[in-house]
Amino acid sequence: MEKKIVIKNVSKFYGRKQALFDIDLTIGQGMFGLLGRNGAGKTTLMKTLAALHRKKGGEITVCGVPIEKAKEIRAMTGYLPQDFSMYPSMKADEALDYLGALSGIPKAERKKRVTSLLRKVNLIEHRHKKVRELSGGMKRRLGIAQALIHDPTVLIVDEPTAGLDPEERIRFRNLLCEVAEERIVILSTHIVGDIEATCENIAIMDEGKILWKGTVEQLIENARGHIFTSNVEKRFMPQIKKEYIVTGMLSQNDYTTVRIVSDSEPDLPNTVLTEPDLEGAYMYCLHSSGCDVRGGEE
Amino acid sequence: MLFGKECRRILTSLTFIIYCFVVGLFFVSQFIDENKGDPYIPDEKISEDHDIIIDSAVDCLANEYLANNYICYPLGFYKSVRLKEDDSQKVEECLLEITGLTHDELMDIRDSGEHYYVEHGIQETMYYEIGELPVSDTITYERFCELMGQVDDILGGGSKYKVDDLVANYSYVPMTQEDREAIISDLYDKDRVVGGYARLFSDYVGIDLGIMPVFVAAALVSADRRKRVSDLIYTRKISSLKLIFTRYTALVTMMFIPVILCMISADIHLIRYFDFNDLALYKMFTLPTFWLLPQLMIVTAAAMIVTEVFSSGIAILFQFAWWFYSIMADGARLSGSISKFDLVCRHNTVFGREEFMLSKNDFIFNRIFYFIAAIVITAITAYIYELKRGGRFHGIRLFGKNSIFRHKA
After folding, report:
1. CATH entry 3.30.70 includes domain A224-288
2. pLDDT, tens digit, for every residue of A45-63?
3. B407 touches chain A (CB under 8 A)
4. Which CATH number fits domain A4-220: 3.40.50.300, 3.40.50.1980, 3.20.20.70, 3.30.2130.30?
5. Is B390–A70 a contact, with Cβ atoms under 8 angstroms apart?
6. What part of B 334-393 touches A (C-beta under 8 Å)?
7. How far apart are CA B322 and CA B344, in angstroms?
8. Which of A89, A120, A234, B71 is 20 to 30 Å from B103 by CA-CA measure?
9. Residue A298 has pLDDT above 50, yes or no
């Protein structure tokens, strides 16, 4: 059985509102990043892949199994929702054990897996803490552990690092990379740094459509020649923000070094073409696809 | 085992603790505290003599007709009904057919007696002392019941003339010493004491079980949504049928445990006041289980399905309405006939075995019906859960901005 998810012409409606438009994607083993702004349709796609939402049209197969076979899909999929939560009065190990029981894992096996996963996510010392007593980062790690409790082939992780402090975010990314070695991991996020640190293959979504798909290198290469830096007086910044896509600013005395995404070289003093980073490449992708990404006036 | 885990979740929930407290408190205050020493023997008994029923009912009807003030209890609430002339005329026709009197004869009887006034709130009603009216020789009990039914319809229901309630309302006669000895004998010989108390126990606890389980069941079912755990549960391998039935069984089991403890306490209580050899202690477990378990099952099943479809709040409102209707629909009758679809079966006396046995078949039908209905409803709940799980149904909201259908996927 080939470890891949194939999505063909998938659309999805909420009532009359179309949330996904003819999505076509093939996701192979390893980490796959789904990048997009809030409201781009990432969560809808994630939930559709987790058999939580019903698609309107198209086909989805997960490791050869059609998405309609919900029971089989559930058995092979681990899901960490965007707003992961668990019964607050349950202890961390009880919560894992409960969800393991719902996944049909025998008691003896469950006991081993709970201990092993808590150790893996570095929560073994907090196993007897109630869920309500865990910090945000600990809860997310518990979230990953619950998604892995039945050793799924596919792991769907929706906005896992939002709200985490930098240290927890790094720890979480590393954890994801570890678990991605033997399975398909789909990471949905609006944080470019998460993708940069973990994924090789990505897709960019906006307004329910796939704007771009490929490798991180290809995306960066795509933006080559369109990222510039300029050193301008601070007082011109409002005007520059209005006219250009600004992805970074560094102020020094009366001057600001701005990083700009543009189709052509901006008509600004001290402008130089710059090596693109992923954030700039992502912004260029949105811009070149017709999305309004200007910051506007302050 | 998942069943054990669900039981544990219920055990640690606040609503279950409140449920246990209320069931226990009601049991102690109504059963234990009120049944110390010899049982209270009522002064009257039901005779079921048709002549007595017709005599009493016709006198009552004549009094109310002449005063044009009928006391009714629709849904258990007091209501004074005053009829318009044409409706009053129809009642008079029924009355005249039963008594065999003419209109003039009836008016003569009215005018020959004294009259007096009774205040009803701000209104004053004139009543007549008419004594006992005759009953037509040609009227049969069946025709009498038919006419009483017509009167009840004219009054809008809930009157003292409802056919099903005629025996309970009009057949009471004073109890003789022989009667007293007979019912005591029934209690000791046929009910072995505990049987009588088991009916009383079921009556009290049944009132609780008509409403209290909805809080525990609705809280457990809605917990996934309230704690935002739904998606985690939905994506598990377990089948919806297994999950819903496991949760249902756990709910019923956990909520029946306090009832069983009350049964044990009731037996211990009876041992204190009666000779041990007179007591058939097992009867405190058999009849109440048959009486109360189907009720607990149907209330739990109804709470689960309404919570899955609407919300826990609607489930509580729905159950309160059903419970209230069941208790109050028959004018808050405490004992007597049990109908085929009463949710809460009442028999608020240690005695009245014969009266209870008259409704035995309906009672058995009732409990088996609710037992089967509970299982069917739970299976439907599992189907609804599966629809929600796969994003094919998102629940119906009756209130709020997105009322009726939130999404049509």
Report:
1. yes
2. 999 999 999 999 999 999 9
3. yes
4. 3.40.50.300
5. yes
6. 389-392
7. 10
8. B71
9. no
